[in-house]
Amino acid sequence: MFLFAVKIAAAIFAIISGYVVIRAYVKGLKKKVTEELFVTRQNLKQLNEELQVYKNQLYEMSCKDYLTGLPNRMSLYESLRMSMEKYANMNMALLYIDSDNFKFLNDTLGHSFGDQLIIEIGSRLSSMFGSDYIVHRLGGDEFVIFLSNYVNLEEVEQCAAKIIRHFKEPLNAGGGAILTTVSIGIALYPEHGTCTEELLKCAGIAMHKAKSTGKNRFVYYSPAMNKSFDERML
């Protein structure tokens, strides 16, 4: 009987010892899992932050012109859309700017020189206005300045005249001084269009009118220009 009791006691002790060991193991495992989860959460947080930075960088790259670093066509569309949605009754103007002799210079002196010239044109436009107006590059030698909430047409004309005047001074490109004037077409919101496509089209037509009537000038869009423009496109 005594021996049996000893065996029972030994069995109970073994069970208790096993329970203690298991409990200690489970506790240690729980701590390890908790620590690993914490590390995983921290890693995921860091990864999410890095992905957000990468996403912002990609978005910024998609909104910038690769050659000049200026806002591009996508950025212009976004800016105009937001302005039209937020300030539907605000006066806005689009100045469509194009070099008068870029094609000749690009074909004669080469595409590398042409790229340098585009960079210089963009730089000069940006330096004229600082942060007052944003210069966008559409492509090629075409640039757009978006004027929001202008007071009157005199302000628009002063801006266009300033551009014309500044491009009477030579640009430094290819190691030399190059003179290239610009022609500007102007479209007004909402008179000439209530969306970006309409405004760009009208400003572009006005720009071509400025070129066909002597270059080195600015011209406002008018509906009468559509006929001659359409005929020229045939």
Annotate the secondary structure layout.
Layout: H1 2-62, H2 73-86, E1 92-99, H3 102-109, H4 111-129, E2 134-139, E3 142-148, H5 153-166, E4 171-173, E5 176-178, E6 182-189, H6 196-212, E7 218-220, H7 225-233
Parallel strand pairs: 6-7
Antiparallel strand pairs: 1-3, 1-6, 2-3, 4-5
Helix pairs in contact: 3-4
Structure description:
This protein is α+β, with helices and mostly antiparallel strands. The protein has seven helices and seven strands; from the N terminus they run ααβααββαβββαβα. It has helices at 2-62, 73-86, 102-109, 111-129, 153-166, 196-212, 225-233, and strands at residues 92-99, 134-139, 142-148, 171-173, 176-178, 182-189, 218-220. Strand 2 and strand 3 (142-148) form a beta hairpin. Helix 3 packs antiparallel against helix 4 (111-129).
